[in-house]
Amino acid sequence: MADAAPSESFQVADQIKEEDTIDDSSKEEKKGDVKLEDLFADAESDDEFPSSRPAAATQSSSPGEMTPTSSQEGDTLKASDPEVMKSFYQRLFPWRYLFQWLNHSPTPTNDFSHREFAFTLSNDAYLRYQAFPTSEHIKKDVLRLMPSRFEIGPVYNTNPRDRKTLRNSTAFKPLSKELCFDIDLTDYDDIRTCCDKANICNKCWQFMTMAIKVVDAALREDFGFKHIMWVYSGRRGAHAWVCDKKARSMDDQKRRAVAGYLEVIRGGAQSGKKVNLRRPLHPHLTRSLDILKSHFQEDVLEVQNPWETDEQAEKLLQLLPDRQLNESLRKKWNSAPGRASLSKWADIDALAKTGASKSLDAKALLEAKQDIVLEYTYPRLDIEVSKKLNHLLKSPFVVHPGTGRVCVPIDTRSLEDFDPLGVPTVQSLLAEIDAWKEPEEVDPNSRPVQDWEKTSLKPYVEQFRAFVLALMKDERDVKVKRERDEGPESMDF
Amino acid sequence: MNRQTFTRHDPKRRAVIDHRKKQFAESSYQENTYPHRLNFYSVPPTADITLEQFEQWAIDRLRVLAELEACAFRNRGQDETAAHMKPFLEKYLPLGANSSSRGQEQSARLQEQRQKDHYSHFILRLAFASTEDLRRRFARVETALFRLRLQSDDINERAAFVQSLNLDWEQVSDKERKALREELAATSAAGYGAKIQPEEETWCKVDWERVPELVERRVVFLRGGKAYVPSREQQSMVVAEFTKALEKTLEMTARALPRLDEDDRLTPILNHLSKNFITPDAGYSSNTATPGAEISARNIDKLSSHFPACMSNLHRTLRRDAHLKHYGRLQYTLFLKGIGLSLDECLVFWRGSFSKITDDTFNKEYRYNVRHAYGDVGGDSNRRGGGYSPFSCQKILTEHPPGPGEAHGCPYRHFNMENLTALLQGMGVSDRGVLQGVKDDKENQKFHMACNRVFEHVHKAEIKKARDEGIMTANQLETIVHPNEYFKRSFILKNLDKKTEDVKMQG
User: Fold this and answer.
1) Is B226 in the same domain as B272?
2) Which of A244, A325, A380, B18 has a CB 3.0–4.6 Å from the CB of A187, allowing a cystine?
């Protein structure tokens, strides 16, 4: 591959062909030895992420053939434009890591080949039950059909494409899928004041930050899951993929149990107080409350200011238990219109202390206040996604057709720094590839730079790769251990 | 794969005789004895019984199960159910404790009771293994029965029974118990009110997957995938094991069923049994149209005066927001389907109601779901089955509670009292006594009662008339347990009036 002269102008078809041959040769190498590390060295060097040649070469290729030639043009194109999507799937989408992530091993297994994919085509047709033996096959089919996005479903007991050949419909069953969570900012509409519906800003994204912290802590500490990936959904939410083997093989009842364990906000538009918890608080809730307290002060009271008007403040009063106290609070706030939520929150305790109510039950008030904190901060999960084994969820790294943003993984170690509005769009990424210049001094031994490495997608792909590697390592360790446990005789020689 | 090994609980069951002589051979099965009152039903019965016994025992058990399901369905609490079931159990399926038997005679009687319990379970298993739906229901009520009996079991005998099951549970050491004192205290008191010191209780540690029910209700402490279960809750672990085992064996029975090379003695009985397992939540047959009603899209507003609170709320929300969220649409669509609205009219109705969106959006995002509910599109089974059936109260009350911004569910259950009162007043119920009654019902979790109370209030005059003139029998006026039944009865009652007037005028 190092021989391929970078000066040649190239075309898509050539490149695919080139990839195929390379892939074949690397496959032959694979047969001999399936050591994970070797395969990874291999993954680095082959043409999974094709490298476009220096900018000059790209420009000399026929314009419009595959990429926008200038950054201005890139900005004006819509994300759902077929050319844009094609370049994205061709050059930037991390197919190999997607494959390894779902396959749990470098060599193809049923975990991948029996996995359902569902494509949303540009004409909004929805194709379910797609399945592919390897990453190459899915890539080819995606390039052929050009879906505006695709979703990932469960692994079935047979190839989903063969489901009609089975004796009866019940013989086709889902076996495993990652445990998924979906949090959507639209569910916060009754408590966020900055935006509504599909709109978001950094102020209300804080709700997502809190949600991720709480759910992540519970999944790790309580349930003992390790491989949890959070993914930005491209517009106004985030998904979690819990990939531990134990999580994947859970049936619906267990999924329902996890969902129920995490669900605190219950009730519809008309049910009034939405958090009604038993006391003493379960350790999970005590911990969540600890995490959420400071967020409540800063991100909710100060930033959202949810009880500014009298009408809004009435909502707060409805959640408080003591009538007399409420009366004095109402009086106080009426005389000072527009008093900030932070002060109003402080007023509750202040007035309670002065003895505004004779029959005040301090414990009930404290508990109501805790419930309010939770109602305004605790994660609002779209719980149906988590309850069912056969629910489909949008794949990481696809492009949100509306915003053009890539569904990138969120790094929970620097969760607070994640900026949903700073997530690269597909147009900007393509422009970055074009703007990229080969460094002056090229180390002749270095491998060619891949397209994603030239863009701001790089840290996200690297994060995904590290996640997948750790997951595969664990899966392999389990296998090795089982082999050791099962066949001690064979080791004794 | 390991099906073979699974069914062979007992090595003695293996056929040791030449298969050609098998039919003439005497049974070499081990005779069942019943040392415990409770039974996990892991070993099938082997002795001979008469055909009459076969049928009678099955019917007796069925009576108990049907009654039990009705209890769950009426939202009876645990104690209430136990009290209600006691006479039924004593009459049809008595099961004495070991301690109650003294002397030979009583001991024999005990064995007989247990045999009947054992055999009737397996007969019903045969009858209800055929479809997934029946299996699920059977597993659910059998579990309820098992739980009921487990609770009423003598403490020592229960311990002995649990011991005999050989479930591997790890005890939590004293040291760990002390270290986790606070966390354990927070969970041990949960749901009981009384604070019990964690040191005074024995705890065991199991993979949380084995007690999903406890995890879901957040009554156990979890750490690193292990659940810390207090001794009192160990009951529910036993129940979970029971369900698990039963579901598995039901599945196997289903697979073996086609090979049940049976003459015409048992099959008719079994079919008859499964057909008679009809209980309130068996659904509402949507083909019983309401006579005299013009059911069309433009008429829905008028008809909505006959809707129960749940549907009335959906209708109001739809008219107010020109939109409903997914489960709201589903619940409402199926109800409309149930009252006899055709698919075409239903599509017209939704298109008109979602007035803020374009035709294009409607066709793309909503049309398919409506058609799916009617069985017009979707998988084979969906189309063949004509889509989903309208939701019963049971389903609305227990499944998918509404989340933020959602309007489905049962207002009596999912609204707070203030909003419920507002809704009821909107429906024309302002009588203080009725509202107070609804409030009490709601507090006692008797949501059906509340709904029926409102129905009876709104149709007071008509019901009296119908009853006095013998137009509707008491049977036709029993408790409403399905929103579509509410509509149908309301419509008939209101129009019955008109009809009789017509008759009078003609006369």
Assistant:
1) no
2) A380
